[in-house]
Amino acid sequence: MTKNAYNYLIRLRPLDYYFFGGEITFGDGKNEKYYAKTRPFPQQTTILGVLRHLGYNKVDIGESFDPDTLMREDNTFGYIKKLSPLFLMNNKEAYLPSPLGTEKAQPFDVSTAGQGVEHWNGENWEKAYQLLDYKAKDGWNQGLRSKDNEKITELDDVIKIFDKIGITKAKDGEAKTDGFYKQQMAKLQNGWKFAVLAKLDVELASQLPQTAIMPFGAEKALFHISLKKLNAEKSMESYFPNDMWQHSFPEKLDCILLLSDALVDKKIYDYCQFAITDTVDFRNIRTPKAVTEFARFFKHKKEKGTDTGDYLYKSGKYNLLKRGSLLYGNKEKIANCIDRPTYQAIGYNHYITLSSKK
Fold first, then answer.
1. Alpha-carbon distances, residue 293 vs 148, 223, 248 (angstroms)
2. How many angstroms separate the CA atoms of 60 and 71, rounded?
3. What is the pTM for the complete model shown?
4. What is the domain count for the chain?
5. Domain span holding position 316
6. Is 127 within the bounds of a domain?
7. Interior angle at CA 230, CA 48 and CA 89, nearest 5
8. Is residue 301 included in any domain, yes or no?
9. How far is C-alpha 18 from the chain's CA centre?
10. What are the residue ranges in the chain where pLDDT is below 70?
11. Which end of the chain is more exposed for a tag (fewer CB within 10 A), N or C?
12. DSSP secondary-structure letter at 258?
């Protein structure tokens, strides 16, 4: 993948607790639930929405993101030309979620044993791989890494999760008899911020506030947002060199690491001899240019083949490969299943090719 150059650093600091909704939410109507669970990080589309909102009535904010247009290369987002994957910062040090599983499990190529063929369950395998010490019930281990510190920083030490319990109110102001709820919230520890690198139209970006306090997320939590113009164009590799992700794996295989969540072609596993992956749910909210006031509920539902109009709506559900996933096999064929210009423009589907550590 070619290097992406960025000319702005954008930092987002929650002033208190926050909530980013996923699939585990309170729901509505017949699907109403009593429990909601936050995501630890905002989605890339959330960041896109924040930056577009900064530009309302000031600069050209471009088109609204729609997952159905992922194959189009003519989608534009106004003054926002490109976004990097989200990462975290503590002072000037940058941290990115580590690859899945590489800290506690290494691939083992059984084709190196004996004559190169192992007999498992009565069938001949030319190659097979296993992860040593991996326990399915524990899932994948994923912390935070910086280029200056190989030690994994535990996510629990950076993002504190806690529960809020309360009673919902009916429209007439009366408490519901069955209205108890439990909501999982999150809070960044002091000194930590979310961050992205952005390629912005410099002339248009100069018309934006360099700092702002904005509410966003499902609970409209307040965030302090700052735009810092970089003296020289930076790349993700400036903050996260490719060699910091090296690990041991069979040298005959190529290894692709996802630096962000990715919507991929379903054929991708046909080109993988072996993979360490997880999935994450994805939806986005379409925000047309004409909409400047965000509604809590959507009165209209998008129907395929009809005019979407000037209103908000949620997309359908998509399953993305989680960032930190490792894909081993033919890098050209795997890359063809990942490359999506529209998604990469807003920080999804970013990847690098790794070399094996000797």
1. 43, 18, 51
2. 23
3. 0.83
4. 1
5. 6-103+141-354
6. no
7. 65
8. yes
9. 17
10. 1-3, 22-35, 68-74, 102-133, 166-181, 218, 288-313, 358
11. C
12. E
